[in-house]
Amino acid sequence: MDNQVKHGSLEMTGAMLISGTIGWFVLVSGQPVLDVVFWRCAIGAATLLAICALMGFLRPGLMSWASFGWALISGVAIVANWVLLFAAYSRASIGIATAVYNTQPFMLVGLGALFLGERLSLDKMAWLVLAFAGMLAITQQHGSPAYGEGDAYLPGIALALGAAFLYAVAALLVKRLTGTPPHLIALVQVCAGVALLAPFAQVTAVAQEPPSVWLILAMLGVVHTGLMYVLLYGAIQKLPTAITGALSFIYPVVAIMVDWFAFGHRLEWLQWLGAAAILLAAAAMRQGWTLPSLRSRGHLAGGAHAAPQPEQGQAGDQSQQAGHP
Question: CA–CA separation, 7 vs 117, rounded Å?
Fold first, then answer.
C-alpha cells in the first residue's frame, strides 16, 4: 500500500469514526434538535471559515454566483437532513436510524434516473429490493429505545428515511458544483443553516446552560463538522472509489456499537437482519457489485461482445461516497 492510499485510508477511517459518534453527542447535549443543528452550523461555519482561509479558498473567482446559489440550495437540504436525522435518534434509536439513513444511495440512484436520465440496471433493482426487505424487517420489530420518546419508533423510521431523501437531493445538487473546492461548498452549506435556523433556535436559552453543554456543542461544530469535512474530503482525493465506499461503512457500524455501549440499546434479531440487509445492499450499490445471473442475462440480451457499462454518478462522486450526517 503506497503512502497516499495509506494516509487516505487513515483519514477516511477517522472521518467515519467521528461520524459514528455524532448520535451520542446529540443525545447527551440534552438540547432541542433545532438548537443542536443551529450551533453545529454556527460553530462549524467559524471552523470551516478558518480552514478555507488557511487553504486559500476564499480568494475571488473560485465560486461563481450560480455555483453559490446551488450551494445555498444544497445547504438547505443538508441542514434539513440533519434536523430529521437528529430527531430520529431519540425515536428509532441511534443504531436503527443510522441503518435506515444508509438507504440514501438508492434514493440518489432513483433521483438520478428521474432527473439525469441515468440508467437503472437490473443489478441496482435487485439491491433495491434487498434494501426494501431490510426496511420491512426493521419496521416489524417495534419498540423505542430506553432514551426514546414513548411510542415513536415508526415516526423515527420515517424521519430517518426523510433525512436520507434530503441527503440524496443535496448530493444531486452538488453534482452541479464540479470543480468547486468541497470545503468551500461545506462552508456555504453551514452558513445557509445558520441563516435558516436563527429565527427558530433558542439562542439565549443555551447561554444559560453549564459548560459541559457548550463543550458538546463545540465538539459538534469543530470536530464533527470542521475536522470531519477536512478528513473526509482529504481521503476522497487520495483513495480509489472502491476503498472510499468500503470504509464508509465504518460509520453505521460505529453508530450501532455506540448505541449499544453508551446507552445499552441492543438490536433485536430481526432488526439486526434488516440492518445487515440494508448495509449489504448499500455496499453493493456503492461498490458496483453485480449478480452473476443478472450479468449473464445482460450479456445474452446485449450480445456476446457487450461490455458492462460504468455506472453513472458512482466513480469519483464524492457526494455519494459517504452518507455522513
Answer: 36
- Specify the pTM: 0.84
Closest to 31 (Cα-Cα) out of 199, 164, 218, 307? 218
Q: Is the pLDDT of residue 71 over 50?
A: yes
Give the Cβ contact number of residue 13 at 10 Å: 14
Please, which pLDDT band fits residue 298 given cuts at 50, 70 and 90? very low
What DSSP state is assigned to residue 178?
A: T
Amino acid making up residue 119:
R
Residue 301 confidence (pLDDT) above 60:
no
Whole-Å CA distances, 295 to 99, 123, 212:
28, 8, 55
Separation of CA 33 from chain center: 17
Q: What is the DSSP string of 186-210?
A: HHHHHHHHHHHHTTTS-HHHHTTS-
DSSP letter for each residue of 5-21 = HHHHHHHHHHHHHHHHT
**183: pLDDT strictly greater than 80:** yes
Q: What is the mean pLDDT of residues 177-197?
A: 93
**Cβ atoms 193, 129 nearer than 8 A:** no
Residue 82 phi, psi (nearest 5) = -60, -45
Q: Enumerate the domain spans of the chain.
A: 3-321
Whether the Cβ atoms of residue 177 and residue 70 lie closer than 8 Å to each other: yes
